[in-house]
Design brief:
Chain lengths: ~290, ~675
């Protein structure tokens, strides 16, 4: 029984390897992706992964690029469904440094490629460009990666020009944690980097943590003064009614002047596609606001 | 408990506290107020400083005073009504119940706020309180039993809330901030709403003042004076629960203020109950004000966000430890002998039961699985050879860990003669959890080996502390248990602070705390199995002590048992078993609490066969939990430890409802 199993395992894995080898030049390997930022990059390179973590939450937090229906859901990121992952027979598993714990287990299933999206090695956008290139090379989508990055550069440039025509105003980019607290982005966050790329100024000056955000009470927004507030849907359910009853919020100058834009969901810890999505949504929101 | 030698006046303490709070508030308010003076005039069109002062800083100070006073009143009333110096909304599980109820609301009925939210918080509090009282019914409501049960219920509610946040992690940060109790305000609305809710309940508290004071004379005397003791107690508990639920629904969980304030009032020399109530309110208000002002001062300009409630919990839980030596321990009134409590039933032969259980589990393991599309894979599953290398180790490791915990639980229950004793309660799990949390946040991501080392070191450190504290009391069981629970609460609070800071790593930690078994390697499984076997054999050597110790210390001594030595060795065995199981299954399972009860209810009496069957039942429970954890939310893998807690909880209640005497 035992011998049987191992022999079958071996045969199957050899068979699997040979198909990957054979197909490497023409098509991409079967890639399971355990990190959303890498998954959206793969989608942007037109190489959908065979499975990602928390696929059911994708339409809620990432929205675009849309996830093809056939991509398997591998469970929670911190509690991966290894059984399911194994039965998908991936040829490559993409992970991030946050999943280093799982690497020994993952290596039992397939070769692992660990790509870092969040560290302090450089500005987030440059880092994400590098990751896109590396990933493109590893999954045989080198040309697509270059084309995608070229287009991305053009999109940012276009957005920057459109924004340059709008009246200059500093921004605060934040998500509501609950009715009394916001998470403000700055520092090494992707949003901050996109703002700089678009020639916008972040009004949040106080230090933020390693991941580029600070959780603060809503009253701290008052110091920022005459700004445009950029928030994100989905709002936690009780926030909107509670804010209407919050005297301080209602008296904030940007709330009075109606300079509050709620953008559709974007992935705060995303890669290039998320940055592009944020840039596009932000640009049209600012244009709408000043029109 | 009473400070007869020191004659302090509460006024003295209050002046001190007020001075400190005043200094902190001055530091907070000096800058905005002076700036306000300077900028008065027509040029101040948009006056940020004034606005923040009036609509954020001052309402927050008001909220701190109000919540502190309300919680202190709740604590003082509970302590008086139950005659229990350790009673408080936190130690009775009242605010944990509210917390869980509101977490449920946030996820399933998010449209609910205002009075709806109050009602939900209240329902949760009442339910938690009733469960605590049901748990200690048979212990004659002894002071320590109530607190022990209350803290266990708190931990259980926390586990449930954790599993909810894991699956619905959209609201993760929100739930943690709320669980930590942040006092940040942006208008006077919530504070005033809380004020009038409390004002409505105030007359009830005032009416209770006299009858509650009379309880000082003892139940008999007060009854002869015409006080309906039972009804007064019930009403008093109800008022306290109301106060606490209102506060929790307004700002979240603010732990331990309700415990600390009345105790300080008493230590400061407030003798009569009305006096104590008044001073408690003032002290509570000042305490929370001081803490909150200090938190604001410390947090200003930093990126770290720390909710005030989490800080009071971190400061407050060591208070329980400090109070332990001062506590006069009353022997529980019904020290029933476990050997005679139940009618003797003839149990099925142990080996047959264990064999049957094992067979069922193997079938479950083989059959219970699901395909990629979510359909159940029962027979003819093609990918067996791919799945089994993952499924078998986690199942074996979980079962072995369940066995270890059940063995530890059995030893502790025998040793302490306390039906609520369990490894969770010993604090070893808490120490392990704390060490891993600190390791994760200080040293960055830990690998499996690092996690295990941290867990074992943390567990050992707690064990050493508990043993050191216990040595002076000859390991009086209830003290050791309460010390363990207080440590668990401390670990919980520290982890809460870390979580509320909103670090993405918090999710990984949360899942580890839940006892995730997916990805367990064959080596880990083997190690757990061998450890279980070895430790069970070692524990079996102590079967004579396990038989004799429940008879009471006098009898045991008369029979020639080296009391301290025996207790120390057995505690040590239980602790090592727990420390070995915690890295596999996480700190909270309740299997160690439950398995020995099932065995006892089945009629097994003999120490050795009880130990063996307890281990078997624990292993079976955890193995089943692992199968459920793997399949019910597919493809999501739930943490096995939390699923085990979910399974074990209702079982425990069922045992209680059937009126099974637990002692």
């Amino acid at each position: 029984m035992r011998h049987d199993l191992t022999r079958r395992c071996l045969l199957i894995s050899v068979a699997g390897l040979s198909t990957v080898r054979a197909g490497a030049t023409t098509s991409t390997p079967r890639v399971a992706c355990l990190d959303w930022a890498l998954a959206e990059t793969m989608l942007a390179l037109d190489a959908p992964p065979i499975g990602i973590v928390a696929a059911s939450d994708w339409p809620l937090f990432v929205v675009e690029p849309a996830l093809p229906r056939q991509v398997a859901d591998l469970g929670l990121q911190q509690d991966i469904n290894f059984e399911l992952l194994a039965t998908l027979r991936p040829g490559l598993i993409l992970t991030s440094p946050f999943l280093e714990n799982f690497e020994p287990q993952l290596r039992r299933i397939a070769p692992v490629l660990n790509l870092s999206i969040y560290d302090d090695s450089g500005p987030p956008l440059a880092q994400r460009e590098a990751v896109t290139r590396t990933l493109g090379q590893r999954i045989g989508k080198h040309a697509e990666a270059e084309r995608f990055l070229r287009q991305a550069g053009q999109s940012f440039e276009l957005a920057r020009q459109r924004i340059a025509q709008l009246p200059h105003r500093r921004l605060i980019v934040a998500t509501f944690v609950d009715a009394r607290h916001v998470r403000v982005y700055g520092g090494a966050s992707l949003y901050q980097n996109v703002l700089r790329r678009l020639g916008l100024e972040n009004a949040w000056r106080t230090p933020v943590g390693y991941f580029g955000f600070a959780t603060v009470g809503v009253e701290r927004l008052a110091d920022a003064g005459d700004i445009h507030f950029v928030g994100f849907d989905p709002l936690p359910p009780d926030v909107a009614p509670a804010l209407r009853q919050s005297t301080l919020w209602e008296r904030l100058p940007f709330v009075r002047a109606g300079r509050v834009s709620m953008l559709p969901p974007t992935l705060p810890f995303g890669a290039m596609p998320a940055a592009l999505r944020f840039a596009r949504l932000l640009t049209s929101a600012l244009e709408r606001a000043s029109a | 408990m009473t400070a007869t030698s020191v004659r302090l006046s509460p006024g003295f303490l209050v002046t001190g506290l007020a001075t400190l709070a005043g200094i902190a508030c001055f530091l907070l308010l000096a800058a905005p107020v002076s700036q306000l003076r300077a900028t008065q005039g027509p040029e101040a069109i948009y006056d940020v400083t004034r606005m923040v002062l009036i609509y954020a800083t001052l309402p927050r100070l008001f909220m701190a005073l109000l919540c502190g006073a309300a919680l202190a009143a709740a604590g003082a009333i509970l302590q008086q009504a139950l005659g229990n110096p350790l009673a408080s909304p936190t130690t009775l599980g009242v605010d944990a119940g509210a917390r869980l109820a509101i977490a449920l609301t946030l996820i399933f009925v998010p449209e609910l706020f205002g009075f709806g939210r109050d009602a939900v918080a209240l329902a949760g509090s009442v339910l938690a309180t009733l469960i605590v009282f049901a748990l200690v019914r048979n212990r004659g409501f002894s002071a320590i039993s109530i607190v022990l049960a209350g803290l266990i219920v708190s931990l259980y509610c926390g586990a449930l809330a954790a599993i909810l946040t894991l699956v619905e992690n959209r609201y993760l940060t929100s739930l943690f901030i709320w669980g930590g109790g942040s006092l940040a305000q942006q208008s006077w609305g919530p504070g005033l709403a809380l004020l009038w809710r409390i004002a409505v309940c105030l007359p009830a508290a005032l009416i209770l003042l006299r009858p509650l004071s009379l309880l000082d004379l003892g139940d008999e005397a007060s009854r002869s004076l015409g006080v309906p003791v039972g009804r007064v107690r019930a009403l008093a508990v109800a008022v306290a629960v109301l106060f606490s639920a209102f506060v929790t629904s307004a700002v979240g969980v603010i732990g331990f203020v309700g415990l600390a304030a009345p105790i300080l009032a008493r230590l400061a020399g407030a003798r009569r109950f009305p006096e104590r109530l008044l001073w408690s309110c003032i002290i509570g208000a000042l305490l929370l004000l001081l803490t909150d002002a200090a938190v604001q001062l410390a947090a200003s300009g930093s990126a770290q966000f720390v909710p005030t409630g989490a800080v009071t919990a971190v400061l407050g839980s060591p208070l329980l430890l400090l109070l332990l030596p001062r506590l006069k321990l009353t022997q529980p009134p019904i020290p029933t002998n476990p050997g005679q409590a139940l009618p003797r039933r003839r149990p099925a032969p142990v080996w047959i039961v264990m064999g049957a259980g094992l067979a069922i589990l193997l079938v479950l393991l083989r059959l219970a699985g699901r395909n990629a599309d979510g359909s159940w894979a029962l027979f003819g599953f093609d990918d067996w050879h791919l799945v089994m290398p993952w499924r078998a180790p986690r199942f074996v490791a979980a079962s072995a860990a369940g066995g270890l915990l059940a063995g530890a639980g059995f030893i502790l229950q025998r040793l302490t003669n306390n039906p609520l004793a369990s490894p969770e309660v010993l604090g070893v799990s808490a120490g392990a959890m704390l060490a891993v949390a600190v390791g994760l946040f200080v040293a960055g991501p830990l690998n499996a080996i690092g996690q295990n080392i941290a867990a074992i070191m943390g567990g050992a450190a707690v064990l050493a502390m508990v043993l050191l504290m216990g040595r002076s009391t000859g390991f009086a069981p209830e003290r050791v248990l309460l010390a363990g629970v207080a440590l668990s609460a401390l670990a919980d609070a520290v982890v809460g602070v870390m979580m509320a800071a909103g670090d993405p790593r918090a999710v990984a930690l949360l899942s580890w705390l839940g006892g995730t078994t997916s990805g367990t390697s064959a080596n880990t499984a083997l190690f757990a199995l061998v450890t279980c076997g070895l430790l069970a054999a070692a524990a079996a050597l102590g079967q004579r002590w396990l038989t004799i110790l429940p008879l009471g210390s006098a009898t045991a001594q008369a029979l020639g048992t080296p009391l301290s030595h025996a207790r120390l060795s057995l505690f040590l065995a239980a602790a090592v078993m727990t420390a070995a199981a915690t890295p596999v299954i996480g700190p909270l399972t309740f299997v160690g609490l439950l398995a020995p009860h099932i065995v006892r209810a089945a009629g097994v009496r003999h120490a050795l066969s009880s130990l063996c069957t307890s281990i078997a039942v624990g292993a079976a429970l955890m193995g089943t939990a692992d199968c459920f954890a793997r399949t019910i939310a597919f493809p999501i893998q739930l943490p096995t430890g939390l699923v085990a807690a979910l399974i074990a909880g209702p079982f425990l209640l069922l045992l209680l409802n059937r009126g099974a005497r637990l002692t």
